[in-house]
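Board work, copied verbatim: Methyltransferase domain-containing protein
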Amino acid sequence: MTGLDVFLTMTEDTEATRYCHSRSSSPSSWVNKLARMAKNEDLGEKEELIKNESENADTHSLSSSVRQHVVDGHLRYHAYHAGKYAFPNDENEQLRDDLKHNLTIQLCGSNYFYAPVRKLLERGANVLDLGKHGNGQVVHRKGPVADSFPETRFHGMDLSPIQPNWVPENTDFVVDDIEHEGGWTYPLNTFDYIHVRHTIHSIKNRPQMWERIFNHLKPGGYVEVQEFQYVAACDDDSCDGPYALRDFLNYLQAGLEALGSQLNSIQHAEDELLAAGFEDLRYQDLKSPIGPWPKRPQLRECGSILRDVIMWGLIGLARRPFRDGLGWTSVQIEMFLIEVRKDLAREVDGVPVFHSYFFFRSIYGRKPSGGNTFPKDQIGK
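↓ predict structure ↓
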């Protein structure tokens, strides 16, 4: 199966409002890289709002106030509907997103999607990619695959306006909240394919999201969800003793639950998609090693990438869930992360001591050809 990989960006000059809108709202790596950012931007420890232009208009280009960000302890977060997403959107996080994208492609054997939509995309379709800074599996900010499906229109939706400034003509991006109380701005029965990747762990009302996806798909359209299960699984006895990464994941799960979302929500996706009305569900589970411990070269490379993804993200992953969700101090967080880094890097003769892995699940389903769409005033109720 040939993959799909699209530049997800936008132009800021002509017809900018066509690509991006914003509703009025009240904005409520490595240590060295973050330190450089702090020095260059003269950022303090307290939270501050970076403003650009007026918020009065209901529709904005990406050069307007929708580009606002919140800086919290040298980490940068989205300002539109601030606090809805617990993790940063700064350069370090974008690098991690790109690494996760590369990891996914490698892990899936160069398959960019599994839903049977390739012929549909070749003929021409409407595609929506939800969340993860617009760097989803289908619409990604690096890669020219939009040119491979010139008849198809690709849309990306996310809270963070961090895309580059160039897009193919058949790609656009919208800054919006997947869980906005007013619903989505797209008409019902619009899309042939909706993709969700590395996002549902931050959704607080998943039944509402599945319902919105169902209602905005055309009859016969497909949804596909891809997500890690963030549990340090192991098939031998290498993880039987203390393992700081396992503890980190348990605390992260508890912190996100305190903030209203569920880290391992992918394990409920099948039942929730069936309850939303989808049929013909198919899924695939793959093992993604943490560290280069497998014998197979491809999996060793995947393990190296995933270990970097975790290592580079520890500060950003822990900051709000541990501090705001669990009540930890900054010193407590950093002292604990020292132990996590040690265990991630622990090796004997160049091989990681802990042979752990995450499951990576891809699941897709189809809206029935005669699928009923809920009345618009009932969407998300």
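The mean pLDDT is 78.
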